[in-house]
């Protein structure tokens, strides 16, 4: 085999360097040296771990407390979805009762996925980065395949262009510019993203405090909608006639269109997206028992958000006639504010709230994404792993933040408005769904690995029904992009074939496999070298894997 670690070389001892799914083994270190203040050690070929566990996160071991976890997950979940999804859900499902039931379904989908992710975190508590780690552990063979593929998609497609445009659109609308040019929107969006990136770069503790403030603002905004909705339902807003009309026969008009139901589930999944964000920072949580803190804070955040979604939707149904909601598209919250508080509130107050919500979402995405990219860099499958892993100069994942910012700026500016922009945004979704499905299925593989190694089960174990349910939802999310829209094969959000982004996404996955095979098998065989993993421990606390070529004459490069 052309991929070879220290254990495959003659007269070399074996020593595990980090947590893995199997039993820890130790013997004489194989190769140790001091190099620029770093301790270097060759990794064991039998290890399922690619990146080593850092004893203490160099980004900080107590950045997050229970309130920070709640705020981070709430900021990720509450973006623009609740302000816009109600109208499209009612148009798809037909009745307010069915819509409310689907919000409950969305809550269950998020909780079932969270249960699986919590089991992963209990298995690998010392590793940040979420899916990076879980895929590495569940699919250890073929060696480097999943780390390499996930690295490509997570770095190359790490842009947040659509979020930037949403932020700019609502911010300009709140300032009175109802018809901004494309370039003005892009410029404002990039400016907002730059501010968010600088906050995440300069200080983790500062940005987490900002995140907490923004999370509270979102809760206040949704709470205001909910409370005002109760006032409407109680008859406190005199100009709204019969506010309970939608609830007398709540399931009247229910539609049984399977395609519409599946699309509604996709929208719900989007509305709850990010319910696991704090798990990407699992090694930065303070307190005596971080895992216990995660066990109660993460589901609580989902329940809080899900409850607010349900009651906010009820407020919409009470204040706005159902036919108006069905035809509102993404403007249902604007209709609500206009009906209850007048034209000025609908035209100015709501856009400001949505802009704040969008900015908070950008900050939360950056906090988690920068950790994911850093963890990918620590695996050694990207060039210069030392730079990716380094916490310098601010004890933050600086290179991950910078690369994400550069890609976002390019993808916000480069594609022309319309088809090209919509396509590159859609392109992110399909590979992401593939990796998510593999993550959920991977928990079964890890359980089997631990059982074969004679290790006890995790301290937290997801129910099998929750895992299977979440796998089924993930399969649905992968199948639906292939179902033609009602308007035909050219009726998607682009003027060409509706499923082009899914086809290209699969094509990129195939190219990743081809690249991996050439890199790991073909080139070493024909050029006469082996790939050896060297685990490097830096004085600043960071640790990473360096993939080194070892030639037949003993040279290393």
General description of the model:
- The protein is mostly helical and 557 residues long.
- The protein has one domain (60-128, 154-477): Up-down Bundle (Amino acid/polyamine transporter I).
- It has helices spanning 66-77, 81-93, 96-123, 131-138, 145-156, 161-174, 182-202, 204-233, 245-248, 258-271, 290-319, 322-326, 332-341, 343-378, 385-389, 398-413, 419-427, 429-452, 464-479, 500-527; strands at residues 33-35, 38-42, 529-537, 543-551.
- The chain has a four-stranded antiparallel sheet with strand order 1-2-3-4.
- A hairpin with a 2-residue loop joins β1 and β2.
- α1 (66-77) runs parallel beside α11 and α8 runs antiparallel to α14.
- The radius of gyration is 25 Å and the shape is globular.
Give short descriptive properties of this protein.
mainly alpha; 4 strands; 20 helices; globular; Amino acid/polyamine transporter I; AminoAcid_Transporter; transmembrane helix; 4-stranded antiparallel β-sheet; disordered N terminus; 557 residues; membrane; AA/rel_permease1
